[in-house]
Design a protein that fits this description.
This protein is of the alpha/beta class. It has 20 helices and eight strands. It folds into two domains: 189 residues, TIM Barrel, CATH 3.20.20; 144 residues, no CATH class. It has an eight-stranded mixed beta sheet with strand order 1-2-3-4-5-6-7-8.
Length: 414
């Protein structure tokens, strides 16, 4: 697909993810203006096709998804082509959608069909008044001068519309928006570590850190690995289930060390780094685990495009550990002094390794939807927009399989 797309989270006041909206670019942003004209005038929606293909369970864990809809697409029968649960789909109408009487009728129609409706904040928000009785959400910026008048207007008119403040880039802005009474927020504020000098690492986290340091040694001791795992009953059960579901399940497993011997160091390392990083992130906003795992697989999938195919396992680790500072609530340098990682991964995360660092910077640009810089890198490296889309789409699918994997007698392992 000749499109770049990234689902961005929407948070509640408790920093619980309540849904996702799609940030996108059609085509290369440096060529033909990203083919925006073609998208705006297409009767079919590539985004509904994208959501249909991946599914809400994988894409959003069955949370609502906000799908961009153009003026032309609003006139079509979207309900016939949307195959996912439409009650979890919000049609996101951009600034170019006509505020016409005909479109009011279309909005009413889609509401009757079960869809939610959302708008991007326009400068003249009063022009949206005819639509707001049928509008569930409106996206605003984070500037006080735009949020407060809009919020006050909605409250005064008793519209049912909820405001989603975007571009929340810091904890301070998040807290200010909460003080205004907003309920929904989007932005990168959750990706900044909350560093505390009085930070105390819980015994459980210390055990996880010991496990990561053990498996990231070049030739680690299986007895020591088993000893660390057995300190945490939940982790031990998870490990045994994973081994029982793998290709070695035909062997009778007697204890943790026996299970480790059957599985082998390589598979143990793969399981431990993924499972333990996910467990460590449980005290952070829920999105952190998702970011960590998506980055890991996205980095691995990009390895060939950056001519680093032989380093794909280390690139996976780089993506996985890229949120270690947030998880441990400290600087990245201190976090990497705590957890052992390969030297090239360490250097990349500290911005000291050019080849790995190039991949790391690329995935961060992609997450931020900096499509101009993503497109520039694609042109310089000689890979296509479709190559990038396929790498990210594959990471989304893999992540969905990981979090929804059910262990049974025919189960699969990490």
């Amino acid at each position: 697909m000749d499109m770049l797309v990234v689902p961005k989270p929407i948070f509640s006041r408790s920093k619980t993810v309540k849904g996702y909206y799609l940030s996108f670019q059609t085509g290369n942003a440096l060529l033909e203006e990203g083919k925006t004209f073609a998208y705006e005038n297409s009767i079919s929606s590539p985004f509904i096709e994208f959501v249909n293909q991946i599914g809400l369970e994988v894409l959003t864990n069955n949370l609502p998804i906000f799908i961009p809809v153009s003026n032309v697409q609003l006139a079509t029968n979207l309900e016939e082509v949307c195959t996912v649960d439409r009650t979890r789909v919000a049609l996101l109408l951009g600034r170019r959608v006509d505020l016409s009487a005909a479109n009011i009728e279309r909005v009413k129609y889609f509401k009757e069909q079960g869809f939610m409706v959302a708008f991007i904040h326009k400068d003249d928000y009063r022009a949206l008044d005819p639509f707001l009785p049928y509008t569930d959400f409106i996206f605003s910026g984070s500037e006080t001068s735009s949020v407060m008048p809009l919020l006050g207007h909605i409250r005064q008119k008793h519209f049912p519309t909820k405001v989603i403040a975007r571009k929340i880039t810091s904890e301070q802005i998040f807290e200010k928006m909460m003080a205004f009474g907003l309920e929904y927020f989007a932005g990168s504020f959750y990706m900044h570590p909350q560093i505390s000098k009085d930070r105390r690492v819980s015994p459980l986290k210390i055990n996880y850190i010991h496990l990561l340091n053990q498996v990231n040694q070049e030739d680690f001791d299986l007895d020591k690995f088993a000893g660390i795992v057995q300190r945490d009953t939940a982790l031990a059960i998870q490990f045994l289930k994973m081994v029982n579901s793998s290709s070695v399940r035909a062997n009778k497993i007697t204890n943790l060390r026996h299970a480790a011997v059957l599985l082998g160091q390589r598979e143990i390392k793969k399981w431990a780094t993924t499972a333990v990083t996910s467990s460590l992130a449980q005290e952070s906003p829920g999105e952190i685990t998702r970011v960590s795992m998506l980055r890991a697989k996205f980095c691995e999938n990009l390895a060939g495009l950056f001519e680093l195919a032989v380093q794909k396992e280390n690139l996976f680790l780089m993506g996985l550990f890229s949120v270690l500072d947030i998880i441990l609530e400290t600087t990245m340098e201190d976090a990497l002094n705590t957890v052992r990682v390969p030297d090239r991964v360490r250097d990349a995360l500290l911005m000291k390794e050019p080849s790995f660092g190039e991949v790391y910077e690329f995935i961060r640009l992609y997450e931020k939807a900096d499509w101009v810089e993503v497109s520039r890198t694609a042109l310089m490296k000689g890979f296509s927009i479709a190559d990038i889309f396929n790498a990210y789409n594959s990471a989304l699918t893999w992540y969905g399989q990981m979090i929804h994997m059910e262990i049974d007698e025919n189960g699969v392992s990490l």
